[in-house]
């Protein structure tokens, strides 16, 4: 069933992209490039869902959301806030208004699409009618053929992290909708899977001090650690060479922890990897969200090392851990 979506965004390129993507889900899309026009269209059309930029001419998306919350009919409209600003106050205001928060990044559509499907119901396009041409790039067609011929492509990527498999993984990410995978991060010189037989842990953490502390503590307990500093990078490393466990921060550049966890659990190559969330966020709603997405443990910073170690011992094959 076709639903109505209003997108309020002052960046014309991003607006055009979001409109096209939403239309590809067979939804009716209206747009606005400032807060005042957005409010007028919200009141006049009462869409099924609103996507609002936080920073817009004529006001901001949070103010529009606040006005919606006081309106008898508009308060029921699910709202997604888009912003490049990840300061705690903005996030708190989104939560207090009952709005969903999505940070602008190279993978913004990959984070928006599952949320749209959840809020509007299944939004996939119906079976193609006769004569209708589906727009799929050559890369996506090649990946579709590889995936439908079996899962070998996925598992080859998982077990053979060399230059040849980089080409395959980039194609897979293109099909998944994660754009700019290579440009999103710089590989660290020591980021390859450790060569010895000790279990290794992938830490997806952008704080240098915390990452160093984790590496030292893990080494003492018989684990190697590989680090990723951004969301897309972390997912890619896990996808290429499955670690024994993943330590996942919540707030990350290029894809927050909830996006990374969702992608990990959606892929058969990574769905069984234990994930421990390490975050400074203490809200019960975030813990509930991450556990519902499949997190095995949720620990807050500053973390209790003893508890983290016990969680790893419980989730990882302890017989493989060196003394």
Sum this structure up briefly:
With 323 residues, this protein is α/β, with parallel strands linked by helices. Helices cover 44% and strands 16% of the residues.
Description:
With 323 residues, the protein is of the alpha/beta class. Helix content is 44%, strand content 16%. The chain has three domains: 117 residues, Response regulator (Rossmann fold, 3-Layer(aba) Sandwich), CATH 3.40.50.2300; 42 residues, no CATH class; 137 residues, 3-Layer(aba) Sandwich (Rossmann fold). The chain contains 13 helices and twelve strands. The strands form three sheets. The protein has a five-stranded parallel beta sheet with strand order 2-1-3-6-7, sandwiched between helices. Helix 7 packs across helix 8 and helix 10 runs parallel beside helix 11. The protein is elongated.
């Amino acid at each position: 069933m076709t639903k109505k979506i209003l997108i309020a965004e002052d960046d014309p390129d991003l607006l055009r992209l979001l409109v096209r993507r939403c239309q590809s889900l067979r939804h009716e899309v209206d747009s606005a490039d400032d807060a005042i026009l957005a409010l007028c269209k919200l009141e006049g059309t009462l869409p099924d869902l609103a996507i609002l930029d936080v920073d817009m001419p004529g006001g901001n998306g949070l103010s529009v959301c606040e006005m919606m919350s006081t309106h008898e009919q508009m308060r029921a409209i699910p709202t997604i806030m888009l912003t490049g600003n990840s300061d705690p106050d903005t996030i708190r205001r989104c939560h207090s208004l009952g709005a969903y928060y999505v940070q602008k990044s190279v993978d913004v559509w990959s984070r928006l699409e599952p949320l749209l499907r959840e809020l509007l119901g299944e939004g996939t396009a119906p079976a193609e009618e006769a004569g209708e041409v589906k727009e799929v790039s050559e890369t996506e067609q090649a990946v579709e053929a590889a995936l439908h011929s079996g899962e070998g492509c996925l598992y080859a990527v998982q077990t053979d992290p060399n230059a040849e498999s980089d080409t395959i993984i980039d194609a897979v990410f293109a099909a998944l909708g994660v754009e700019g995978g290579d440009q999103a991060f710089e590989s660290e010189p020591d980021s390859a899977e450790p060569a010895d037989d000790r279990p290794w842990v992938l830490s997806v953490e952008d704080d240098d001090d915390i990452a160093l502390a984790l590496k030292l503590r893990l080494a003492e307990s018989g684990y190697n650690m590989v680090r990723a500093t951004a969301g897309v990078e972390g997912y890619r490393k896990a996808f290429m060479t499955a670690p024994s466990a993943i330590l996942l921060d919540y707030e990350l550049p290029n894809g927050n922890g909830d996006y990374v966890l969702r992608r990990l659990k959606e892929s058969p190559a990574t769905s069984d990897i234990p994930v421990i969330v390490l975050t400074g966020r203490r809200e019960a709603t975030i813990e509930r969200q991450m556990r519902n997405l499949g997190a095995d443990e949720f620990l807050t910073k500053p973390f209790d090392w003893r508890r983290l170690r016990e969680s790893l011992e419980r989730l990882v094959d302890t017989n493989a851990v060196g003394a």
